[in-house]
Amino acid sequence: MDSVSQIALGAAVTVAVMGRRTALWKAAAWGAVCGTLPDLDVLIDHGDALSNMVLHRADSHALFWLTLAAPLLGAAIAWLQREPALWRRWVMAVWLALITHPLLDFMTIYGTQLLRPFSDEPLGLGSIFVIDPLYTLPLLIGTGIALRGRAAALRWNAAGLLLSTTYLAWGFAAQQHVTEIARQSLAGQQVERLLVTPSPLNTVLWRVVAITPEGYLEGFYSLLDAQPVVRFEAFDRGTSLLPLVAQHAPVATLASFSDGFYKVERRGPSIVISDLRMGQEPFYVFAFEVARQASPLQMLAQPEPVGLRADVGRGLRWLWPRLLGEPVPSPR
């Protein structure tokens, strides 16, 4: 999730655990710090853009390593706050602020390596978009009112946590509903992989991607659509190009990280691989030039990022009517 959501979640969790045992603002401040700590791995350069992408949300998001770090951080905070009698409570608060960060990230589609060092498999449920105000606002409001010292302050904070968690449960339920509709819409077609994930900023309009032997299909379904049907468009996945670059390490890395949701295409003299999970046709956030069509084909040891960014204004103008169930075509 975005940094604001992680800061808000860390603050709310820590306030809930510490309660009135310490000043609420201290609990919120330390929770905000711990809630954002795992994302400091973006400051580490792993040598190229593709490696930086794949190794974000890796060791710094592993439940095992965060659990080991929590006692040290919690004890250090208790010492700095001159509250040695509360060190166990601080350890619990820090642990929850740390581990809820990757657990929330797991709800997005990016891929979080929760199980390191035992497994480096990237896990992503994909039931919430990386930025969703309806998740974040209850946390900000609940903790904000609590910090203003209003009566029943801790109840406001708890209510924010309850509402945000309920919203996550709603997103998961909506995803399962849309997945069933997508499967029914694809009946009779050979589908190798199916992806159902929300469009930006909401959990009403969902994007569906189906990998087929011939390529891939993309469609959108709103919970407000008149008919329970997903209408798909077909696209070339570049299967004829894949044998040329399949053995190239960066291609294999992205193919594995994306769980098979990728395409290969020519862009002028370049061969580009794109992660189909994040974006929509033809705009994908994570796309990398992996080879150039020289003679012979020149493989790039360090893939170059060439992701395409959509026109945000145009996209938002499409998003709202499509969310409301209007059958408007996707912006291209």
Topology, element by element:
Elements: H1 3-18, H2 24-36, H3 49-55, H4 63-80, H5 87-106, H6 133-147, H7 153-185, E1 193-198, E2 205-211, E3 216-222, E4 231-235, H8 242-245, H9 249-257, E5 262-267, E6 270-275, E7 279-280, E8 283-284, E9 287-292, E10 298-305, H10 312-323
Antiparallel strand pairs: 1-2, 2-3, 3-4, 5-6, 6-9, 7-8, 9-10
Helix pairs in contact: 1-2, 1-5, 1-6, 1-7, 2-5, 4-5, 6-7
Describe the structure.
The structure is a single chain. The protein has 2 domains: 3-172, no CATH class; 186-312, no CATH class. Helices cover 44% and strands 17% of the residues. The protein contains 10 helices and 10 strands. The protein has helices at 3-18, 24-36, 49-55, 63-80, 87-106, 133-147, 153-185, 242-245, 249-257, 312-323; strands at residues 193-198, 205-211, 216-222, 231-235, 262-267, 270-275, 279-280, 283-284, 287-292, 298-305. The strands form 3 sheets. A 4-stranded antiparallel beta sheet has the order 1-2-3-4. α1 crosses α7 (153-185). The radius of gyration is 22 Å and the shape is globular.
Q: What topology, given as strand order, has the largest sheet? A: 1-2-3-4
| Residue windows where pLDDT falls under 50 for at least 5 positions | none
What level of helicity do the residues show? 40-55%
Rounded to an integer in angstroms, the radius of gyration calculated over CA atoms is 22 Å
First and last CA, distance: 26 Å
Kindly state the mean pLDDT as a whole number?
Answer: 94
Order of helices and strands: HHHHHHHEEEEHHEEEEEEH
Q: Give the percentage of residues in beta strands.
A: 15-25%
Globally, the shape reads globular
| Helix/strand/pairing category | alpha+beta
Major sheet summary line? 4 strands, antiparallel
Q: Given the structure, what is the number of helices?
A: 10
In total, how many beta strands? 10
Query: How many domains make up the coordinates?
Result: 2
